[in-house]
Design goal:
The protein is of the alpha+beta class and 207 residues long. Helix content is 43%, strand content 19%. A hairpin with an 8-residue loop joins strand 5 and strand 6.
Length: 207
C-alpha cells in the first residue's frame, strides 16, 4: 500500500501567495516591459515624423511605471509642445504677442538647423545696426501676418531674404501618431511579456 502525505495547508498558502503577491507582480512587470518597448519605438520613430535637431524631444518621452498596488503604466512626453503635435491645434502667441514661423533660410538645408535665441526676431532687430532687418505687412491696415525680411546688396541690386512670418496664430497639424504606435506595440508585445512574467512569478513563489 502506498501512503501519500498531503499538506493541504501548505498548498493553500502557496495558492494564496500566487493570488496576493505573484499575479500582481507579474502583471506589473509585464506592463512596465511593454511600456518601455513602446517608449523605445516612439523614440526610434521620431525622425519619421519630425526633423530632429537635438536629443531633447527624444529624452522627453518617458514611462510612468506600474506597481503591484497600482497596475497602470503610461507612455508620453514631458514636453508641452508635443501635445499639439499629437492632437493638433492652434498655437497662440505668448508674451511677444506673435507666433514667429521661421523661413527655410533660417532652418537651413533640409530644415535641420536649430533656431537659437540669437536668431529670434527680437534679437535680429536689436543687433541690426544698419537697419536692414525690416517688417512688412502682408495686409496693411489689418491684423494680418507680418513678414520679417533682411535687405542685402546695394541700391542697384537689392535682395530681400525672408526670415520669419510673424502671425497672430499658427495651425499645428497632427503629426505624431502616439496612440497608434503604442497600440501597435501593445498588440505585439503584451502577451509575450505577460507569459514570461507569469513564468518568472511562479518560479519565485514560496513553496
Amino acid at each position: 500500500m502506498i501512503e501519500v502525505d498531503f499538506d493541504h495547508k501548505r498548498l493553500a498558502r502557496w495558492f494564496d501567495d500566487i493570488a496576493e503577491r505573484q499575479i500582481p507582480f507579474a502583471s506589473s512587470l509585464a506592463l512596465n516591459r511593454t511600456a518601455f518597448d513602446a517608449r523605445n519605438r516612439l523614440r526610434e520613430d521620431l525622425p519619421k515624423h519630425f526633423t530632429v535637431r537635438s536629443t531633447r524631444t527624444k529624452q522627453g518621452i518617458r514611462v510612468g511605471k506600474s506597481t503591484k498596488k497600482k497596475l497602470e503604466a503610461s507612455v508620453g512626453s514631458l514636453d508641452d509642445y508635443m501635445k499639439r503635435q499629437t492632437i493638433g491645434g492652434t498655437k497662440t502667441p505668448g508674451k511677444a504677442g506673435i507666433v514667429a514661423i521661421p523661413s527655410r533660410k533660417m532652418r537651413g538645408p533640409g530644415g535641420k538647423r536649430k533656431t537659437l535665441p540669437s536668431k529670434w526676431p527680437k534679437a535680429l532687430i536689436a543687433k541690426d545696426e544698419k537697419k536692414r532687418v525690416r517688417k512688412l505687412s502682408i495686409r496693411p491696415g489689418s491684423a494680418g501676418s507680418l513678414l520679417l525680411y533682411q535687405r542685402k546688396g546695394g541700391k542697384r541690386n537689392p535682395r530681400f531674404d525672408l526670415l520669419y512670418v510673424l502671425a497672430a496664430k499658427a495651425k499645428i497639424p497632427r503629426r505624431w501618431p502616439l496612440e497608434k504606435t503604442v497600440e501597435e506595440v501593445v498588440a505585439k508585445r503584451w502577451h509575450v511579456h505577460q507569459k514570461k512574467a507569469l513564468e518568472q512569478a511562479m518560479r519565485s513563489a514560496r513553496r
